[in-house]
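[Automated response] Your request has been received and processed.

Submitted sequence:
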Amino acid sequence: MKRKPLPKSRPHKATKAVPRKKSPQAPPAAFPIVGIGASAGGLDALEQFLGHVPAGSGLAYVIIQHMDPTHKGILPELLQRATAMKVVQVRDRTRVRPDCVYVIPPNKDLSVLHGVLHLFEPAAARGLRLPIDFFFRSLAQDRHEQSIGVILSGMGSDGRLGLRAIKERAGTVLVQEPATAKFDSMPRSAIETGLADIVAPAAELPGRLLAHLQLTPLLPQPELVLTDGMQSALGKAIVLLRSHTGHDFSLYKRNTLYRRIERRMSIHQIDTMATYVRYLQENPQELDLLFKELLIGVTNFFRDGDVWDQLREQVIPALVGKRAADRTLRAWVPGCSTGEEAYSLAILLKEAIDDLSPKGEFTIQIFATDLDQDAVDKARQGVFPSTIAANVSDERLRRFFTKEERRYRVRKEIREMVVFAQQNLIMDPPFTRLDILSCRNLLIYLTQEVQRRLIPIFHYSLNPGGVLLLGSAETVGHCTDLFSPLGAKSRLFQRLETGPQLEPVLFPASFHANTSPRPEARATPAPPSSLQSLADQLVLQRCARPTVFTNDKGDICYVSGRTGAYLEPAAGKADWNIFVMAREGLRYELAGAFQEALRRKQGVTLHGLTVASNGVEQGVDVTIQRLDEPGPLQGLVIIVFTDVPTPPPPKPLDAPPRRSPGAARG
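Generated structure:
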């Protein structure tokens, strides 16, 4: 049989032939899917949006609109007038095709799996449903980088949490300019998340989106190989960021940094890294926007429910038993973003302790830190949109939150358990004497070298038997001698007791000791003696007791041993100065002795001080000495804490004899 020649439109023919060669379960060739959320006043915005989508865009459009569940859906007929693309109402198991528009039917929830749309009966009561969030989340899981979320006119805040899921998977977020929307609640709520890539009138969004996608890879990319020119330009961008914000991103994964910068480049239609560097130099406000892009915090309450269930049922009861003596549980949440993770942990600890009813009152202390000061300030307020109801049960909402119009505020008893502060995890000293350390989905952005240094620090920070929480894509790597997993698939790891470590723990103060000040320069081998190793040797030689090294201003450079009984971070912005961190009973005496030690060549010792920690008083001697011997430690101040018996309380003085009213006054 003679074979017919292929038609001229060869790519089209090849594309149609591909599905017949795949198994029925295999997903079709991937293409971007645009999820469009709208509510009140959304019809006009939808018509403007679809009316400006050019023919052959290659994208599929799925519209999720809040509709009266009792009315017949006529939206497809109305929208068909605005576009030449085919507009259909979704039926169960509808396969998505490019250059088509799909509309959710009334009184249904919609999800997507391998490019196939699935309809669900609404699980929530009318008035509590969040169909836009529901679809956006499934879209993010199904399309990853090719997921696109659009928020148009509407009331409420539906879509806010779904946009976070899209952003987490490196998708794209567009929002209608609130001033052009008939109802601006949904657009404003979306913009408040800080996740919007493009904000524009509905009619301009399609053109802006397609221009953005032309410069953004549509398919998941392999590991990027940075050329010398790209490395140099990236290094310059890091230098500009450091000069403008004071934060150094040179220890973050270069590929991650470049991908995030690519997003900013595509928004500005800049095609080379060198051009973008010039743009950064000429537009300082872009440095602020890039800084926010690099710090995108994607989180929500009780994320990954199985982890919280395991914490509640297995981990916390064991920790409460171990801490029955001092009745205190301490936790640290680095990379806390806007606070959902920290508050979730506080709620869980409160619930578990109330259920266990241990003897005596337990104190819960949670330190939550993040590099983004704006996120920390927002977390401290404890105010969240009504959409958190999708992740927080009704019982928890009633017990731990106060309803304020269309938002929830965390109750005071939970807010007081958490201290929020700005902190750079890879540069600032860690918290110590912890029972739980939750660092989720932060390590994946850091280089392997930094990850290898942080895991031993986490081990050092935890009490014996303490628990480390990591993200779903994170592990303890080669540090299996430091942590043991608490389940085959769990991301909970328990601290193991180890003998003397062959390699010293490198604390954040030493992370940059061996880093070139020019990020674009090649890495050089570390010198044999670091600040940490030299300090540890000195401590072992002199005292082997809790010790702190500071500069002549009292700023802490290095901590050896467990100093939490004597030092505690102050509330508010993190300040790693020993005079700020000193507990009650040490602060004023320490300040005077510190200045005296700077003037003298010999050490100064304060005897018999009393420090209060968690309601327990402890006697302590404090020795302060400036190190004047030539060497890397010269000029530092060493402060050693030695526990001593608590002095007995003073006996009450006998009351002086009362004078008669007429007695003479001396």
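Summary generated for your ticket: The domain at 228-294 is CATH 1.10.155 (Chemotaxis Receptor Methyltransferase Cher; domain 1). The first helix runs from residue 10 to 21.
If you did not submit this request, please reply to this message.
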